Amino acid sequence: MSVYDAYEHLLIEEVEEGILKVTMHSPGRLNAAHAGMHTELARIWKDIDEDPNVNVAILTGSGGVFSAGGDLDLVKDMSENFDVLTRVWKEARDLVYNVINCSKPIVSAMEGPAVGAGLAAGLLADISIAAKDARIIDGHTRLGVAAGDHAAIVWPLLCGMAKSKYHLMLCEQVTGEEAERMGLVSLTVDAGDVQDRALEVARKLNRGSKTALRWTKYALNNWLRMAGPTFDASLALEFMGFNGPDIREGRASVLEKRRPQFGAPAETR
């Protein structure tokens, strides 16, 4: 029995010897990271790291959609149940650090919307490939919580502080094409070519020196490890927001497809 048999919300497939494809699969939810998927997204990278048969992993979403972000039912549970909140906080922390510390190269293939926990793994991947018309957005402040998750650890390093603040504070969408110009993703291709290009890159990595690639990744990711305290603070501030008044308005506004009307007193902001 394979360790991957336990996964229910991630489709795991060995596409070629040494190359494992991980597909986020949440039918009817645009691959939003509900509770089960969030748990699995945090855990999968440790299993891949320990699997001697895997040299490269590809992360993508099913149905031509990467991930539509956090599941609103999970958001509600987090705002109402402290045990759920603390569990998801640990998973969110583990997801980021497990991607960073996974010794195997990771290639992400992003199409359609790329938001939330899926986006965290997608942008932290060693090689990130996006469709030119992909829609990348960090939606935290739109929900009324700080942009914790992955943003503080990687966005400033990839595209600079000015662009990071603009897109993270205003929740401004970035197309795949613009993301490549900003340095947020490695490269972009036409929408129909994303999966093929990701496999092509994975094959090149699979043929390379395992030690050279893994040690290069380890050394480069020390830049991310140095940002660990910044990430930890941002994640703590994000999750503190799930106990605040704005998350309820943020969630309701998304469900009702309207602009949020945040009204917390100025001294609490």
UniProtKB/TrEMBL annotation:
Q: SUPFAM superfamilies, per this entry? A: ClpP/crotonase (SSF52096)
Query: Can you tell which superkingdom this protein's organism belongs to?
Result: Bacteria
Q: Report the Gene3D superfamilies cross-referenced here.
A: 2-enoyl-CoA Hydratase, Chain A, domain 1 (3.90.226.10), Lyase 2-enoyl-coa Hydratase, Chain A, domain 2 (1.10.12.10)
**InterPro entries registered for this protein in UniProt:** ClpP/crotonase-like_dom_sf (IPR029045), Enoyl-CoA_hyd/isom_CS (IPR018376), Enoyl-CoA_hydra/iso (IPR001753), Enoyl-CoA_hydra_C (IPR014748)
The record's annotation in PROSITE patterns points to: ENOYL_COA_HYDRATASE (PS00166)
Q: Which family does it belong to?
A: Belongs to the enoyl-CoA hydratase/isomerase family.
Cross-referenced PANTHER family, in alphabetical order?
Answer: ENOYL-COA HYDRATASE (PTHR43459), ENOYL-COA HYDRATASE ECHA15 (ENOYL HYDRASE) (UNSATURATED ACYL-COA HYDRATASE) (CROTONASE)-RELATED (PTHR43459:SF3)
The identity of this protein, by name, is: Enoyl-CoA hydratase/isomerase family protein
Q: Which organism is it from?
A: Arthrobacter koreensis
